[in-house]
Amino acid sequence: xxxxxxxxxxxxxxxxxxxxxALAARGDELSRRAGRQLQIAAVSARNKHKLRDFHxxxxxxxxxxxxxxxxxxxxxxxxxxxxxxxxxxxxALANKKHVVTANKALLAKHGLKLAELAEQNGVTLKFEAAxxxxxxxxxxxxxxxxTYPVAAxxxxxxxxxxxxxxxxxxxxxxxxxxxxxxxxxxxAEADPTLDVGGGDTAHxxxxxxxxxxxxxxxLNAVAVEGIQHITxxxxxxxxxFGYRIKLLGVARKLEGKIDQKVxxxxxxVRAALANVSGAANGVLIDAGDAGSFxxxxxxxxxxxxxxxxVADIVEAASGGPSSVFGRPAKSLSRLEAADxxxxxSPWYLRFEVLDVPGVLASIAGSLAEAGVxxxxxxxxxxAPGEPVAIVMxxxxxxxxxxxxxxxxxxxxxxxxxxxxxxxxxx
Amino acid sequence: xxxxxxxxxxxxxxxxxxxxxALAARGDELSRRAGRQLQIAAVSARNKHKLRDFHxxxxxxxxxxxxxxxxxxxxxxxxxxxxxxxxxxxxALANKKHVVTANKALLAKHGLKLAELAEQNGVTLKFEAAxxxxxxxxxxxxxxxxTYPVAAxxxxxxxxxxxxxxxxxxxxxxxxxxxxxxxxxxxAEADPTLDVGGGDTAHxxxxxxxxxxxxxxxLNAVAVEGIQHITxxxxxxxxxFGYRIKLLGVARKLEGKIDQKVxxxxxxVRAALANVSGAANGVLIDAGDAGSFxxxxxxxxxxxxxxxxVADIVEAASGGPSSVFGRPAKSLSRLEAADxxxxxSPWYLRFEVLDVPGVLASIAGSLAEAGVxxxxxxxxxxAPGEPVAIVMxxxxxxxxxxxxxxxxxxxxxxxxxxxxxxxxxx
Lengths: 426, 426
What we know:
Strand content of chain A: 15-25%
Oligomer: homodimer
Strand order of the largest sheet of chain A: 7-9-8-6-10-11
CATH superfamily of the largest domain in chain A: Dihydrodipicolinate Reductase, domain 2
CATH class of the largest domain in chain A: Alpha Beta
CATH architecture of the largest domain in chain A: 2-Layer Sandwich
Number of helices of chain A: 13
CATH topology of the largest domain in chain A: Dihydrodipicolinate Reductase, domain 2
Helix content of chain A: 25-40%
Distance between the termini of chain A: 52 Å
Number of strands of chain A: 17
């Protein structure tokens, strides 16, 4: 084991710091596993002089120089789907350097091209940390659950959203309130759009779908809805029905094609996904004949993410062929997007209406016209003059039909605010 | 991909049949993943003429001939920790053939020697199917959760026991009753000892502990207790306290050594392990700094087990170095067994006593003498003349102290049957 494996790290934020510290603390053990002496040969970060709780030498100011230097591998922890991160990864692969990255946006957008580039150059591109942080779900899908065709992947993939929804349920507080607190505590970004809007979940889902279905990542085919419109009322009603609201990324086969969606969903309180609390992540794989498998754990933060990055480093250093998405890039098929509006489920519907005669009749009429039939209903009075919440659970209905009905209903001047519709997971 | 990878399969029971069928149904897809054309080159089974729902050619009556034939890999699905299975695996490795096996007993007993033999001959020995069936937990421990030292592994690893306990809870019926029914349905073996006595869980635990702690498997150091003595009363009392009884395999660091135990344990109803129902398996890994990770799914049966075996076949065929336990066999340390009796937890205690004055005082006295302090207690009357159940939950106490007290208490002629003690998981 005299052969040295030289690692260049670009980006020394939380995750990069965790990687440096883990390699320092457990270098011998990890080198034994890799069969090669792991060595950090170069690092680069925006601010060389920032106070850090670990020591590095071999600084460079130019991250791109790492891609052409003496390293065997570049660890890209800069982030972003274009710019310097993309340039670094492309140049490193073209220069026959292995790449490990946590960059979900980059891979969701350019995954196929990068996989082709890696294979052409005989190196690997690994991204365990890009989806569900410390949970080894990329490995499980790429190498483990491959024997039978996967039917569906459902995941809680964004810790910020799950933290906010968990807090809303525990305290009854409003979304905006909890978000503000999460920002103050550092659990949510100053600009939370990518998290609460569902975009981050979409990036991760596109990668998991690719691994699960043997398709090239297709981010554009993900229908995305965030959690900003979820109210304490929705969460309370969900609880009455025995459900909990979670932001799910769902990719599944639908009529021979693939349906990819990010949306809030009602999950039965006893279901595994409903019991993923706080900032944790959870993923349910319906692996066809092999049955369903569930994985949960910490999906973000220094150590969980560094755990995944370091595992990738060790694996790449230990050598051997390893295609980026579990099969040759040229055998990845184009993801044919299903018409997701045809997906069928029961729906939770909430209307805020004026307490005047005829409102319920009008709503019920519009639903009937669109072919939506109601399984149960709750109407709850409020203070006089205030709008009244009407909540319905439908029988199994296609999304398109529910949307048609809600569009008609929203036109009524007796209906305040946008009606809310949330699918109920089986 | 013109290079053929020849597979010999020994044993065509449920799992072997599943492997043959999966390779037939998805051979092209799996070959693409492997980068080589997977081909079943030879098979052997006890009864060539048994009616099977799949077709195979290239039969041999002598399984050992597979180890010296033209195959690149031998898949051992015969079972047993000695005899033909051991001979086959050893001969195959010595003849530089990769081996895939689901044989937990063989690996728990001879894992280190077999790993050394594989490495000396430059081939791999893979055993994903040997623990937790379809759950890719061997891979997760061997390659995924390697960055930080693992603190503990806790698993529900035997579907038969979990099925029986789940049924006992659901129906209130006695162990012997539910076992008999499980046997009639084919969920339990005619001789259920290895399952209900905890031995099968011990085999699997020894393998997971080895992967988690970098130690050679040490089956002899596993303290084993089964579920035969669990009564409907225990399950009902557990439920009153907010717990569920599960047979757990637990391996954890204790005073710098490793404590390995198989025993019924009280698990909080909200905990992930408590919600592993029926024949499913579940594993919780405390991966130190990276946090806790939970995995669950089907742990036995044709498709889940074949799923794991086929994944191993594909991985071995795709080449590359892969040490058996995640690091060179010579770097596996000897497992230093902790004194498990020093493990501390709250305990559930149940005594069946005669309803006469002074019994409680005598029990309380013995507990106090051993330094066991009581956190809560339930005493429940029965029909006149029948024994009375006294149930106590202790504060955190070492196992040794509780055992000392119970030994003294059992001497009393007012105490019927053996007192029951079950640790409560935090």
